[in-house]
Amino acid sequence: MPISSSVRRKASDVSGRSDFSPLASPEQYMAVALDEARLAAARGEVPIGAVLVDSEGQIIAQNGNRTIELCDPGAHAEMLVLRQAGRLRGNYRLLRTTLYVTLEPCVMCAGALVHARVSRLVYGAVDPKGGGVVSLFQVGKDTRLNHLLAVEGGLMAAESASLLKDFFRQRRGGVGKVKREK
Length: 182
Prior knowledge:
The chain is 30% helix and 16% strand. The chain is of the alpha/beta class. The chain has a five-stranded mixed beta sheet with strand order 2-1-3-4-5. The termini are far apart.
């Protein structure tokens, strides 16, 4: 399972390793990303989590959104994971890696994935209002760029979307809450 951590841990406190055996399933990696998203929600952040995995199946880095905590508009889960992995590897190029993220990356994060030379992106829910990979823009598929991403969407999408919907529903004080039958 994912690294044990408290909700208050800082981005710099994450060791970037997990006790997953190599070549775990994509669902297991996305489960780690979902755990990071839940930790982000508990901190009052938008619940998005990300995990970067190397070609042997080892988790290099994992984190959740921290834009509020760090007062940093660039502290999206994907960006934090890429920064941490770059520091750990001593190189900004993260060749032969896969990023698992709970929501389709925005344009900023998609651009960073291209610049970091991440090989593959696997995301959960689509982001029709801000998606930079399939919904609004196709940053990872634009042949004018110097690197292309293999993109797979929809992995555990319902759970990813549910976390986001529940988070924003609570933020609005239950407005738009679906009534459930008893």
